[in-house]
Design brief:
Layout: H1 8-22, E1 24-26, E2 32-33, E3 39-40, E4 42-44, H2 47-50, H3 53-67, E5 74-78, H4 83-95, E6 101-105, E7 118-120, E8 127-135, H5 139-150, E9 154-163, H6 169-174, E10 180-185, H7 186-194
Length: 196
């Protein structure tokens, strides 16, 4: 078992190494088909890190550190990309004695029982941060923002694990929230990729 890293900058460096090793693919020509229908030279399958125990430890601590001064009640986003990130953050916050709830935004509103788009222990007026694993156009994050606003939540910001730096995702999100951060950018990954 690897020893736990506790220094925030070392955590970020280790997360970057995991992303490069397990999630990133690169091609000189745009061959990877993306969710929005276009193609790209870059592909990130972040589930291979967000669902990994070490990845969750790193992500939970890094997201918590990034949002702790925003005084939020909860963190979440559109299922499936946001779920492991939100849960890891909630767990890390609990260990630090400053619990932050996690929540899930459904892709489609539930049509039985209590009709809801959002699941979790949150209520109208709560301050939240929206998370997502990868930002390209920002559409998943924007869908989550819309659902949260409809539910009466106060959105204090958004955070991505990876900003692909394509298709104006960061800019699209920044128009809707007061604060946006990416733990890792495509440029960060490419710098390390070219040095390996």
């Amino acid at each position: 078992m690897a020893p736990q890293i506790t220094d925030i900058e070392k955590m970020r460096e280790r997360l970057l190494a995991l992303i490069l090793e397990y999630t990133f693919q690169y091609s000189e020509t745009p061959t990877f088909k993306l969710a929005h229908g276009g193609t790209s030279q870059f592909y990130f399958n972040c589930k291979r890190v967000t669902l990994d125990p070490e990845g969750q430890y790193l992500i939970g601590n890094l997201v918590y550190e990034a949002i702790r001064d925003l005084r939020v009640n909860a963190v979440g986003g559109l299922t499936l990309g946001a779920d492991p990130m939100a849960n890891a953050t909630a767990y890390s916050s609990w260990l630090r004695g400053q619990p932050i709830q996690s929540f899930v935004v459904r892709k489609a509103r539930k049509d039985h029982g209590i009709i809801a788009s959002i699941e979790g222990k949150i209520k109208a007026g709560d301050r939240v941060v929206i998370v997502d694993d990868v930002v390209t156009t920002g559409s998943s994050t924007l869908q989550a923002i819309s659902a949260c606003r409809e539910a009466g939540l106060v959105i204090t910001g958004a955070l991505a694990l990876v900003d692909r730096q394509e298709m104006n995702g960061r800019e699209n999100i920044a128009k809707q929230v007061p604060w946006f951060k990416a733990l890792v950018t495509r440029d960060d990954v490419m710098r390390r990729y070219r040095n390996t």
